[in-house]
Amino acid sequence: MTSYKELGLVNTRKMFAKAVKGGYAIPAFNFNTMEQMQAIVQAAVETKSPVIMQVSKGARKYANPTILRYMAQGAVEYAKELGCKKPQIVLHLDHGDSFETCKSCIDSGFSSVMIDGSSLPYADNVKLTKKVVAYAHKYDVTVEAELGVLAGVEDEVASEVSHYTKPEEVIDFVTKTGCDSLAISIGTSHGAYKFKPEQCTRDPKTGKLVPPPLAFDVLKAIEKKLPGFPIVLHGSSSVPQDEVDTINKFGGKLPDAVGIPESQLRKAAKSAVCKINIDSDSRLAMTAAIRQHFAEHPDHFDPRQYLTPARDNMKKMYIHKIMKVLGSNEKL
Ligand code: G3H
Ligand code: 13P
Ligand code: ZN
Question: How many whole angstroms separate alpha carbon 230 and alpha carbon 179?
Fold first, then answer.
């Protein structure tokens, strides 16, 4: 058993309480590679922001669970080396699908886990979440749960339609499970295609899709039921159109990729939403930089040549999110 405290990581409890009070959100960035980890740490240190580094089941499979855990430990040391005396870094399991996966993460040094029982019948979601909370809290690890289903693919959990979180269920769920934060469904979804063209209108000038607004009425109703309780938004990439255009210009094919407008995320961050999950935007920033680099330097084959601009572009994106969307800068 390795406690996250030995690794210099923190859980989300104080971080979320401060964020809810302060009207900002903590960035939760997914990582699978060293370059993503470096860019996240550099961005968090330069903006003096707390940060959640999250790992999905897919990331654990891709990079190896032990390596990712050491990378998070490395992230803490790297942040110190960059001049941050007391980094606030959370290592979080994203979309944990079973008690066993959550336990394995807790036992190996994660400071926060998500148990995603959102596809289960309500009573089963309560039961599973409660079991994870009971184990996690023994080690002061915080737990994110989910109620409501996001459209798209949640790791292995597929759903064709989005089922907004029912505000009338949240008090019962939070009380029965003892979870520390709650992911809700208000119209966001995973990936770079968050809405079908028929759900959007089109900007007559650019021809780009304009997505429908999030269900802020549902968020408001949830906040009213659970005043001050930490709310989480998944599927919150904005799918920057300049990155999509770069990808398409240099040989990619991402027609009609569309995300959540940053103005809506800013509005959410000012409310009880205190954790905003971003993964796809990092993938787009990395891919755009690499495609452009290959197109402009067909003779390059040293990964450092194309991964350096990829890392720099991700860092730029992370800094932008922290400072212009979530407002977590200067909050250490
Ligand atoms: O919620 C999904 C995250 O973006 C993780 O995606 O399962 O492909 O690693 P992944
Ligand atoms: P995006 O696909 O919008 O980046 O969402 C990421 C996420 O919710 C990770 O859990
Ligand atoms: Zn998610």
Answer: 10
Q: How far is the CA of 306 from the centre of ligand 3 (A)?
A: 28
Catalytic residue check, 94: yes
Structure tokens at 253: 């094919």
The whole-number average pLDDT for the span 79-91 is 98
Instruction: Give the Cα separation of 234 and 278 in Å (integer).
Output: 7
Residue 95 Cβ contacting ligand 1 at under 6 Å: yes
Q: Is 13 left (phi over 0), alpha (psi -120 to 50) or beta?
A: alpha
Q: Is the pLDDT of residue 155 over 90?
A: no
Nearest CA to ligand 2 atom 4: 279
Question: Cβ(285) to ligand 2 under 6 A?
Answer: no
Cα separation of 256 and 251, whole Å? 15
- The stretch 30-56 carries a mean pLDDT of 98
- Taking only the tens place, the pLDDT of each residue in 243-280 is 999 999 999 999 999 999 999 999 999 999 999 999 99
Give distance in angstroms: CA of 97 to centre of ligand 1: 12
Ligand 1 close to Cβ of residue 232 (< 6 A):
no
